[in-house]
Description:
By secondary structure, the chain is α/β, with parallel strands linked by helices. It is built from ten helices and ten strands. It has a six-stranded mixed beta sheet with strand order 6-7-8-3-9-10, sandwiched between helices. A four-stranded antiparallel beta sheet has the order 2-1-4-5, covered by helices on one side. The chain starts with 5 loop residues before the first strand and ends in a 24-residue tail after the last helix.
Amino acid sequence: MSEPFLSVQNLVVEYHVHGGSVRAVNDVSFTADRGSTLAIVGESGCGKSTVAKALMRLLQPAGGKILLDGTDLASLPESRLRPLRHKFQMVFQDPYGSLDPHLSAQDIVAEPLKLRGVRSKTERSKEAARLIDRVGLPSSALDRRPAEFSGGQRQRIGIARALASRPQLLVCDEATSALDVSVQAQVLELLREIQADTGITYVFISHNLGVVQEISDHVLVMRRGEVVENGTTSQVLTRPQADYTRRLRRAALDPATMHGIKPRHVVSSLALKTPA
Ligand SMILES: Nc1ncnc2c1ncn2[C@@H]1O[C@H](COP(=O)(O)OP(=O)(O)OP(=O)(O)O)[C@@H](O)[C@H]1O
């Protein structure tokens, strides 16, 4: 059997605070096959974003392995990581904070192409225009700055910028959470199309079980920095094994849907709350 594309083994991440350390992620393991989507769910503060930042090596893990296509990202020094960084990219909840407000959409998307070694400015502009078109924005968007877009449009620019690096792994950290339900559905559809076209692997962090149901093949449930449950989306969401997952699911469902998770292609805006 071939190795999974992403294999996280016994990941430990700590924050250093006030001379001590806080363990935010403790012995977390999971895998994702190439071209699949793994969702990470759990209540606020359970460690989802910390896992995401460790995958991006924005944080140095205190222990464990992050094997991406067989290379352990956790153990590489920055000098050896840099040439690999284009392979793994991240889309944030609010791209506004991460998009340079002074640059046009075209220049924002063209920026990573420099790192990819596309030397000609004309080529970079052409490729940026192609990506902006790919994420469903009109050519009139090219010269506009981030402030001149809606939240959904800005998220599309964030996705186009991430795609400019031709990543093999895209970590989406609450990437659709700030969007209203219909815009959320459009962005999810775009992500699915891109996956079908490119075979990209997603790690999708969300507090919204409706979105998770919609986008993911597998689900990892976290609580207090640890894995509670891990399985296929239908297993975890419709036949949860862990009591905690059952409570999480109950807490996320409104009275109208208490009998079960909403069917596929209906994106619920129900948020995960801390189970009672
Ligand atoms: N920079 C930091 N310094 C110290 N502790 C931190 C830091 N960032 C996060 N933590 C702590 O680590 C734990 C996990 O936080 P994390 O942001 O990963 O949770 P999360 O599941 O992504 O939450 P949310 O859904 O609210 O974004 C929390 O207890 C949090 O308080």
